[in-house]
Amino acid sequence: MIRVISLTDKGKMLGERLVSLLDGATLCHKPQPFSEQVQAYFNAADRLIFICATGIVMRTLAPVLEDKYKDPAVLVLDEQGRFVIPLLSGHEGGANEWALQVSVLIGAEPVITTAQAYLQPIYCVGMGCERHCPEEELERLLMASLQQQGLSIEQISCLSSIDIKADEKGLISLAAKLALPYRTWDKQQLRRVEAQLSTRSEYVYNTVGVYGVAESAALYSAQDYARANGGASSTPLSEHEQIKAELVMNKQKTTKATCAIARAYLG
């Protein structure tokens, strides 16, 4: 069983969101008596997600800790849902991988500190737009998307699109303004990530040959960056589509533009 434990009203809101996304999860808001109840969950081998300070968790669980082979996985999140920390049983209990999965679900940053499996996240933005879309509209959409995900422009590795947008002045000038590489990909490359798209547009496919420009470009760019920099994958570098990448923000759109954000890991 998964227990999501919250202590504040804001934490409860995040907990309710997590429970709606995780199969078999139960929200435990302000369990009483706190230490005894939480220790009972832990002793029952329940997987625990705490939304509170790490110090509270460690002081509470310290009396019942055994070893990394027996303790259940424990994650800690901040109230804003910006960070996911695998606190206990990172390798043997699967907390590291679980943290990655939860971070994808809520658009958070995984904080994995075990020396043998440290993973550095990198982010790539994909954008599509109508011909001659103003730079200002593209920038507004991009900045709103970053704010929604709690990301800064400094965390973005590149801005990308489909190759027919290689000469799109708004995208080119926006990338230059933000000091980001502007990369474009042909439809054969973008089709390699087709299975990962959140939605498929027949109209877009009939127009440019892929089912979605922003998501495809973001995913392929993240995979390419990971491949070029020795990403977290044991597969041969030539097998590009097997490098791990994932959408952290599905396509957002205005009347003239679309934007998506993907993440891959280096480590």
UniProtKB/TrEMBL annotation:
Residues 124-262 form the CobE/GbiG C-terminal domain. Gene3D superfamilies: 3.40.50.11220, CobE/GbiG C-terminal domain. Pfam families: CbiG_C, CbiG_N. Residues 37-115 form the Cobalamin synthesis G N-terminal domain. This is Cobalamin biosynthesis protein. It comes from Neptuniibacter pectenicola.
